[in-house]
Specification:
- Its EC number is 2.6.1.-.
- It comes from Paucilactobacillus suebicus DSM 5007 = KCTC 3549.
- The chain is of the alpha/beta class.
- It is 41% helix and 14% strand.
- Helix 10 packs parallel to helix 12.
Length: 398
């Protein structure tokens, strides 16, 4: 095993200094060592990829689609993505100049941030929010500025946004939104989206709107930020959550042509292009009625699971923001129990073999909360809630 020559390490890229692995992954790895553990920790749909989507990938392999594709994706895949965005959210994008197919939503985010951020820039992020964003921002030498939304039901208000813009001055370049939200499950309705857009349109800020969970909204149709302010918005989406294709790594990124020209360059430099069989599968998922029905069936199951988990947890004393999208419950630990959310999660997994995620890993406003992923079978959730109930009963404050 080779040992790195010490002198090589002193002048590496300093934006990586101090970065740590994703805390969700660290905890999940520790929990996985416990025999018999139930993990409601990762945002990983338990459904299989639909058969017709698998078949599209198989057909692409059999048809020897093994050569380099265009860096921003084959035209038929971009056309499928454009059709999906038009059909679902009434968004108009030119598939030739305004859409790129990425290696998952994360790579799309990375390419967008690579394009936009300079060292010393600031990026506003309503918090709690997906923990990976922080690292992606810092890698580019920029500074994440969190806006704590706990007091407003985990929804950014126009007043909060305006204050953050005023307080942070001209170094603010980007607002990074995520809705439906990971970790809270909260989303924005059309009026809330418009209110935020009205603040942004008075500025030259770019909005990166991560809407990867857009197909998993409950009770109301998803309102895309790009519908209100397309000229200032870079939109992130994909098939990971809507079609249970997390491991297939296909996302899409859309925006105004002049911005996308630069983002597509960063994407090409980062990965060259996405995989042909996976792109064929994504086109099938996005463009067919069968693909639409796949998502609706999954969504119906998620609603049943959400309602079951929320009812049990509220009965145990957890306070829960209304989870109207994605597949997460973000719950405040009842008073009298361990209030450090990391300690609570480690105590729970050690004593009752149930792995949940500590809320503080998602930024300010997440302290004293836990995130539960209900992207698991009802049978698994029933056993998980039995274990949580047992833990709460066994550790009642005296």
């Amino acid at each position: 095993m080779p040992n790195t020559k010490p002198g090589l390490l002193k002048d590496l890229k300093h934006t990586y200094d101090g970065l740590k692995p994703n805390p969700i992954r660290i905890f999940d790895a520790e929990a996985s060592k416990i025999e018999g553990v139930i993990k409601l920790s990762l945002g990983e749909p338990d459904f299989n990829v639909p058969e017709h989507v698998k078949q599209a990938a198989i057909d692409a392999i059999k048809d020897n689609e093994s050569h380099y594709g265009p860096s921003n994706g084959w035209p038929y895949v971009r056309k499928a993505a454009a059709g999906f965005l038009k059909d679902r959210y009434n968004l108009d994008y030119n598939p030739d100049t305004e859409i790129a197919i990425t290696v998952g939503a994360t790579e799309g985010l990375h390419s967008a941030l690579d394009t936009i951020l300079n060292p010393g820039d600031k990026i506003l992020m309503p918090s709690p929010t997906f923990s990976l964003y922080d690292q992606l921002v810092r890698i580019n030498g920029a500074e994440p500025v969190y806006i704590n939304t706990e007091s407003t039901g985990f929804v950014l208000t126009p007043e909060q946004l305006q204050k953050a813009i005023d307080d942070n001055g001209p170094k603010v370049k980007v607002i990074l939104l995520n809705f439906p939200s990971n970790p809270t499950g909260v989303t924005y309705n059309a009026e809330q989206v418009k209110a935020i857009a009205d603040v942004v349109r008075k500025t030259n800020l770019i909005v990166i709107s991560d809407e990867i969970y857009s197909e998993l909204t409950y009770g109301a149709k998803h309102a895309s930020f790009a519908g209100e302010l397309p000229e200032q918005t870079i939109l992130i989406n994909g098939v990971s959550k809507s079609h249970a294709m997390t491991g297939w790594r296909i996302g899409l990124i859309a925006g105004p042509a002049d911005l996308m020209k630069r983002v597509s360059l960063a994407h090409a430099f980062n990965v060259t292009s996405a995989s042909n069989p996976e792109m064929a599968a994504a086109a099938e998922a996005l463009s067919t009625e069968e693909g639409r029905q796949d998502t609706l069936k999954m969504k119906a199951e998620y609603i049943k699971r959400r309602d079951f988990v929320v009812e049990i947890m509220r009965g145990l004393g957890f306070k829960i923001a209304n989870p109207s999208g994605a597949f997460y419950v973000f719950a405040k630990i009842p008073s009298g129990y361990i209030q450090d959310d990391n300690d609570f999660c480690y105590d729970l997994v050690r004593k009752n073999k149930l792995a949940l995620i500590a809320g503080s890993g998602f930024g300010p406003g997440g302290e004293h909360y836990i995130r539960v992923s209900y992207a698991a079978s009802m049978e698994t959730l029933q056993e998980a809630m039995k274990r949580l109930t047992a833990y709460i009963n066994e550790n009642k404050p005296k």
